[in-house]
Automatic annotation (TrEMBL):
Listed name of the protein: Ribosomal RNA small subunit methyltransferase G
Taxonomic classification: Bacteria, Bacillati, Actinomycetota, Actinomycetes, Streptosporangiales
Biased composition (Basic residues): 229-242
Pfam families on file: GidB
GO cellular component terms attached to this protein's record: cytosol
Species, as recorded: Nocardiopsis sinuspersici
Function: Specifically methylates the N7 position of a guanine in 16S rRNA.
GO MF term (any one): rRNA (guanine-N7-)-methyltransferase activity
Family, per entry: Belongs to the methyltransferase superfamily. RNA methyltransferase RsmG family.
Primary localisation category: cytoplasm
Length: 242
């Protein structure tokens, strides 16, 4: 008797019909990546075995929809890349962009390095580290993130990495509007910015992928003094007297 849960080493389901429309010529690489996630990804604890049957709809296609927000030749940093969602998906789908996968945990960066090599993705670079460690050194057009942190904390990590006019693209769920409404004031204190919630992949992804987009309107540089600490906690804290 089986539990109905895919075991490590299981073969992922065949890609659904819309996968060809989404990935086009990159579909063979997407299939190979799905196999890596279903096998090594589960064995190494990067994804849960219950995610294997829904790898395509919930993960690969959902992440791929974000590519319509990236202009040709864009530079992108994916923070907290984990198993490569969404950064590796976007990198294999869009060979014209430069993608940096920024991930602090060694076991994850080892997997990402192996995946990038197996999939032959010269436009994708894996870096081990935290986003805040790259502040003042790394600047990019876009920062992507999925299931990394609440919006205020995520913005505190991401906005200092963006050039003027660059955008944080945070993949969120059904409560995206409420999360943005609660966080928008704190986010704008980090750097002057405009924020909105958009849904991408309509007609290809069901439901459409929800993205909170925060576009900075100031030149690159450090955030407003003292505001980054607040963003990391997602709350206002009183200072202690010394």
């Amino acid at each position: 008797m089986t539990s109905g849960v895919e075991e490590p080493g299981a073969v992922p389901p065949a890609p659904p019909a819309q996968a060809e429309a989404v990935f086009g010529d990159s579909l063979p690489k997407a299939r190979r990546y799905a196999e890596l996630l279903a096998d090594d990804g589960v064995r190494r604890g990067l994804i849960g075995p219950r995610e294997v049957p829904r790898l395509w709809e919930r993960h690969l296609i959902n992440c791929a929809a974000v590519e319509e927000l990236l202009p040709e030749g864009a530079e992108v940093v994916d923070i907290g890349s984990g198993a490569g969602l969404p950064g590796l998906v976007l990198g294999l789908l869009r060979p014209d962009i430069r993608m940096i996968l920024l991930e602090p945990l060694l076991r994850r960066t080892v997997f990402l390095d192996e995946a990038v090599g197996l999939l032959d993705l010269p436009n994708v670079e894996v870096r081990r580290g935290r986003a805040e460690e790259a502040h003042g050194e790394l600047y990019t057009d876009f920062v992507t993130a999925r299931a990394v942190a609440p919006l205020p904390r995520l913005a505190g990590w991401a906005l200092p990495l963006l050039r003027k006019g660059g955008s944080l693209l945070a993949l969120k769920g059904e409560q995206a509007e409420a999360e943005l409404a609660a966080a928008e004031q704190d986010v704008s204190k980090l750097r002057p910015s405009v924020s909105d919630v958009i849904r991408v992949g309509r007609g290809k992804v069901d439901p459409a992928t929800t993205v909170v987009r925060v576009t900075v309107t100031s030149d690159g540089g450090p955030p407003v003094p003292g505001s980054q600490k607040k963003a990391r906690s997602g709350k206002k804290k009183r200072g202690r007297k010394r």
